[in-house]
Predict the structure.
Amino acid sequence: MDIIYEIKQRYNSFSQKEKDIANYILKHKDNIENISITNLSKATGASTSTITRFSKKINCDSFVQMKIKLNTTFNNPLPKENDLFSAVHNYYTEVIEKTNQLINKKLILKVVEEIKKAKRIYIYGVGSSGLTAHEFMQRLLRMGFNVSSITDSHMMIINSAIVSADDLVIGISISGETKEIVDSLRVSQKNGAHTIGVTSFPNSSIKKFSNDLILICASDFIHKRDFINTQFSTMYLFDLISTILLSNKDLRKKMQLTIEAILK
C-alpha cells in the first residue's frame, strides 16, 4: 500500500492539525517535492513536532522519510490534465487498483455465504449510497433472494428494530460515520442480525457495529474533478460479489429466468 493511501486510510483518526497536513499533501502534490518541514509548518499552521508525529502515524520514521516516499509516489505521473479521455480512464483504473489492494478474498467469500444463508437481506444507504444499495438489491432480487434496500433514515431504524438472527443487514457508508447507517447497524446487531459494513475507513464508527467490515477505496480522495463517482468502488465490490454468486448454477438459472421474463 503506497503512502498516499496510508494517509487516506488513517484520515479519520487524525487530529484536526494532522488533517490539515494530510489535506495539504493531497492537494499540493506538485509542490511537495522540495518543501521543508518549516515551510510545511507555515503552510498548514501545524508545528514541526506535529508534522513529525504525523509522519510516524503513517509508518515513516521521520519527515524526511515521508517526503522520500511521497516523491516516489508522485513521480509516477498521471495523464496530462488536458487529455480528458485519459484522465477519466486513469481515475477509474486507479479506483479499481486501490480497491483491489484492499480486497480480502477470504472475507468476500464469507460474505457470499452470509448472503446465501440469510432469510432476509436488508441493504442500507443514504444519498448516493442509497442509489448503490438499490442497484445491489435489484441484482440480488433477480437471483431469487428476499432482499430490500432502505434509504429512508426513519425506515432504517424501524426495520432494524424488528430484524432477527436469521437476517443479514448491509450498511454502506464511505466515510464510516453516516449517523443513520451507524445507528441502524447498532440496533440490527443488538437484535441478533448479522451486520456487514462497507466503508473506506477501517477505524470509523461503523466498525463497532459490523460483524464483518469490507474496505473499499475512498474514490473522492484520488482526484477532485467534476466527473467523480464516489460510489464506483462500492459498485466494483458488488459486481465482484454478484459474479461469485452467479457461479452457482441455481442462482444463475434464476437470473436467466428474470432476463427472459423482461424480454417477453
User: Anything to note?
Assistant: The two ends are 49 Å apart (CA to CA). The chain has a mean pLDDT of 88. The beta strands are 120-124, 147-150, 167-172, 194-199, 212-215.
